[in-house]
Every structure is written in C-alpha cells, then in structure tokens.
Design brief:
Strand content: 15-25%
Distance between the termini: 43 Å
Bound molecules: NADPH dihydro-nicotinamide-adenine-dinucleotide phosphate
Structural class: alpha/beta
Shape: globular
Radius of gyration: 19 Å
Number of strands: 14
Length: 325
C-alpha cells in the first residue's frame, strides 16, 4: 500500500469543508489507492464542531483515511503537509468595508503562510479557497519565502465549471467534450470567462454558438453572478460545488489534466502583461504534478479590456495589503 499523503484543511468546521473532507477521505481527490491523513485547522471556538465532523468521518469507515486530527494551531495543522487547502477565511459581515475585510484576511494568511514556511513539506501544494482567494494566496505566498512560489494557487475552478455548464446547456453537447476553455483573473465578478479557443469534438465553440448577445447578456453575467443566485435560491452560499471545484483543482494538479486545459489561479510570470507574482486565473495543463501555463494566446481588444478590469481589481487588492507584507 502507498504511504499516506498528509492533507491539511483549514476552516474545517465550515460548510465547504463539510462537503470537501468526505470526498478527500473517500479517494475522490488523490485516487482510489491513495491513503490520506487529514490535518484539520479551525478557530478555538470551532473545535467542538470539528470534533463532530471527525466523528462522522470515522463513522464512514473510509478505508483510505489513515488518520485525522483537529487543532487550532497552524503549525500543528501544517506539519509535513503535502497538500494544504485553505478554506477558512473571515467572511464579509454587514457594514464591513472592503479594506477591513482585506486586512482581516491578510492577518490570517500571513500567519498561515509563515506556518507553512516553517513546518510544511518543502513541496507542499497550496490551494486557497477562502475569499478574496487570489489575494489571500498572494499573501500566503509572500509569507512563505522558503517554499516555491509557484505552489501557491487560488481556486478559479468553480468559475471554470460554471462556464462549462453554461456552454453545455447552450450547445446541447456533453460537457465532457468541451476543451480549451479558460477563465482569466480574479475569483470575483470581474473574472473573464473566455470560450474563444474552446472546442467541442474539434468544432469551434464560438462558431457553434455564434450568438454575441447570448455571450454578453447571458453567459458572462450568469457565470459571474452564480454565487449570488445560489444564495438567493438556497438561502446559503454554494458549498458542495465549491468543494467539488477544490477536489478537481488538486486532483488535476497532482494526477494530471490529461491534456485538457483547466483554470488555476497561479502566480504570474509576467505573461499577458500581468504583473509578475499576482495570483491570476490562467489556462493551464497539468502533468507530472506540475502545471504549465498556456502561453501566447491571441488577445483581442475585448479580451484586453476584460483582462484589464480584473487585473486592476487584483492590483488594487494587492496595494491595499502591501504595507502588511
Ligand atoms: P464556507 O465554508 O462556506 O466558506 C469558506 C470560505 O470559502 C469563505 O471565505 C468563502 O468566501 C469562500 N468561498 C470561495 N468560493 C466560494 C463559493 N463558491 N461559495 C461559497 N464560498 C466560497 O464558510 P463557513 O463560514 O461555513 O466556514 C468557515 C470556517 O472557517 C468556520 O468554521 C470558521 O471558524 C473558519 N475559519 C478558520 C480560520 C482559521 O483556520 N484560522 C480563520 C477564519 C475562519 P465568501 O466569504 O466570499 O463567501
């Protein structure tokens, strides 16, 4: 049997974790033959709730769950972690200014970045889910100078999957056959879902759809505002689909995307005019435990404008936390 992989998950008492942990333990993320050790972090006041989640994990009798423990200490949670999924973040509360939210989260993610730097496996793969995810990933990366910067990523996969679903619905084709879709930028309503290069069984998606009005008036706003639509319908934020996207992000990163483009928020190397280091949603292909950004795609005027909008938002977020780093 393979040696277990240590997976740290923060915000372990939360909604997203309640979907995520069971799927990690069942093998959905790292494979049906890969044992895991779950190292769960949450705040002191959430420890009792995490104990309940652990009881349920035990009661599932998952053959792949080699061990699970909970702690409120990041250095304990991240000890030797090979994968770290950072879900816990300070939620936006009523009357809270955007700058206050950024600061509250900056404190959490500087501390967690420093803890990862100190105790995690030297090749730990980090996925930030907690919002503002891209900037939180940037902060953690900056706070972990001894770890490879490229291993700090943010989740754009939910936006990607939402876009896949809209294209499948519009074309009546199977979602599995859609290739070369990408979502640029920030995990926020400014993200730019782009199907200019997408194909279905080799046919061009823009040609198949051929409806500029649908693109501008339905597709982009539906993908951008899906989170709000779910809150309105369900009375609660999306959690199972967010957890699923986290599973797919890490699964593809570790096990490969089999040639398919997927979207990951990754530190920019300056390609496409994106400031180096900013964590930006980009099309990537994953192979052998690494991701590779798809380079040299043509950027037309509309795309340049849309990428510029989401880039500006991320630059502003970075500026708001710069003095803390
Ligand atoms: P959720 O589990 O629903 O969400 C957690 C985070 O994921 C939020 O920042 C949320 O952003 C974000 N998120 C990203 N994508 C999505 C999406 N598509 N849909 C919904 N959320 C998304 O939050 P809960 O409040 O249920 O749980 C949070 C847990 O984190 C609590 O147990 C809390 O104690 C813990 N926590 C732990 C910390 C730590 O370990 N140090 C620090 C802070 C909190 P958004 O707010 O924008 O919805």
């Amino acid at each position: 049997q393979k040696a277990p992989i240590r997976v740290a998950v923060t915000g372990a008492a939360g909604q997203i974790a309640y979907s995520l942990l069971f799927r990690i333990a069942s093998g959905d993320m790292l494979g049906a033959d890969q044992p895991v050790i779950l190292q769960l972090l949450d705040l002191p006041q959430a420890q009792q709730a995490v104990r309940g989640v652990i009881m349920e994990l035990h009661d599932c009798a998952f053959p792949l769950l080699a061990d699970v423990f909970a702690t409120d200490n990041p250095e304990t949670a991240f000890q030797d972690a090979q994968i770290a999924i950072l879900v816990g973040a300070r939620p936006r509360s009523k009357g809270m200014e955007r700058a206050d939210l950024l600061h509250a989260n900056a404190n959490i993610f500087t501390a967690q970045g420093a803890a990862l730097n100190k105790v995690a496996s030297r090749d730990v793969k980090v996925l930030v889910v907690g919002n503002p995810a891209n900037t939180n990933a940037y902060i953690a990366m900056k706070s972990a100078p001894d770890l490879p910067a490229r291993n700090f990523t943010a989740m754009l996969r939910l936006d990607h999957n939402r876009a896949l679903n809209q294209i499948a619905l519009k074309t009546g084709r199977s979602l599995n056959d859609i290739e070369q879709l990408c979502v640029w930028g920030n995990h926020s309503p400014t993200m730019y879902a782009d199907y200019r290069f997408a194909t279905i069984n080799g046919q061009s998606v823009p040609q198949l759809i051929n409806d500029a009005q649908w693109y501008a008036e339905h597709f982009l706003p539906t993908v951008a505002k899906r989170g709000v639509a779910i809150i309105e319908a369900r009375g609660l934020s999306s959690a199972a689909s967010a957890a699923n996207a986290a599973i797919e992000h890490v699964r593809d990163w570790v096990l490969g995307s089999k040639g398919r483009w997927v979207t990951m928020g990754v530190p920019s190397d300056g390609a496409y005019g994106i400031l180096e280091g900013l964590v930006f949603g980009l099309p990537v292909v994953c192979e052998n435990g690494e991701y590779r950004v798809i380079k040299d795609l043509p950027i037309d005027d509309f795309s340049r404008e849309r990428i510029g909008i989401t880039l500006k938002e991320l630059e502003d977020e970075r500026a708001a936390v710069a003095h803390l780093l």
